[in-house]
User: Fold this.
Amino acid sequence: MMRGDYKPVVTRADMRRLDAFTIAEGTPAIELMERAGRSITGYLLGHCDELTGSEENEERTYSLLVLTGPGNNGGDGFVVARLVAEQGWRATVAVCGSAPAPGTESGLNMERWIEARGVVIDATSCLTLLRDGSADDTDIILDCLFGTGLDRPLEGRYAELITMVNASGLPVVSVDMPSGLCADTGRPLGVAVVADATVTLGAAKPGLFVGLGPDHSGRIAIADIGLRGTTEAGVDPIGQVVDEETCELWVPHRRGTTHKGQLGHVLVAGGSAGKTGAVLLGACAALRTGAGLVTMAVPASLAAVTDAALFEAMTISLADDGAGELAVGAWSALVGPLGSFGAAVIGPGLGTGAGAIELVPRLVEEFPGALVIDADALNVLARLEAGHAQDLFRARRRSGHRPAILTPHPGEMARLLSITAADVQLDRLAACRKLADSLFVTAVLKGAGTLVSSQQRTGFNSSGNPGMATPGMGDVLAGIIAAFAAQVADPFTAAALAVYVHGLAADILADSVGGAGFLASEVADNVPHALGVLRNGMP
Assistant:
């Protein structure tokens, strides 16, 4: 069902339709369960050293505690227990609830496990094991309790069990979804497993990326279990995963005869007193991403500073109001050279004074290239009279200009949609899609689980880490987007690729420093390394 460049994200209901359609088309449910078990086992065998912190190639036997629930996820757990035992692992299956009914797929796999002399315990014994330290000889917990099937808050023994699992300190791998996490919204249903990794079956689910999904899912692996295609099944995916395999196919490659004139000229317009760093970060990121030329447009009093700080970029001085912000009429200095830019970023450090209020709408209406709108430029748009922003983007569309890319964080998104930041975070997907649809733009909703939406497509980003919660990251992202937008015609592809590269550069840094503490400028400097991973498979 999956291609390298397209990995669908489907809702819980659509996942059921895909399962049912695949079975109706001739694949027995017991075979799907066996395939799921093989995929999960493959993940455990391939990542056991990483999960447990063991030395690679260390000769040792691992011990797996499998927690099974009442549905098919429990059946998957019995398959895994059997398969890892065949590889020499020790496995114990805890049946946490009623045992699967005889004759069902889960029941048949429980019988196979028992016939192989596998160990089965009940929930009470499992709780005792976790509570009194008897699980000290367990290396990994496999969470097969609920998967995508849960639709109500957990309580009682299940809630106690998940709480104990989270407190155990043992590495946890969840099957399909961390138990207790809503597959569609990423909201914990009372309490939810905090996994180190999630092996999601058939297709990714939105709850892995939105809400608190990133806090609970850990590393996400998508297991291809041979489901029929979404088009065949009449399923319209809610979006697609943006990952390394996808971006390897999207990233631009240079020929031996490539010259800088073929790589796009990016304008970065912004800056104000005390905020020159924002423009410099955006310009540096665009250069690091491979833009052929970069020009910074800043208030005149700041031009000497930016000119001296980044030798590789050019500078245009804009009329200054005397306080380090754009003056009314500053726009006129860009009228002549505007057509020479293939892409532009407007907003980093811009301020929201009279000059900015004039500049932003003019660029929306009159700049024909790829336009990335970020930071203060978003706040200028949010302050326009009701309906004016929609009119500006309709006019842009009628003029045949390239669609704009807007990059709000939750607070900026809230101002653009006239809702609260809490409302945005409660349903990030709906907010991102609403902005994209209402303004005819590509919307990038920043934050953990960054989303990219256009009118037809939504991308769920899989890169990035908490160390990115530091000043200037948005400015770097805006520059990366502009550099790709100058070279890639489709704004969704340019934005989604940029978001992934941005996160990948930060992931490489996080691995090297052991977590947080790196700077936005270091992420910009590390973009070539991230691009090397995508283009050449560099480690």
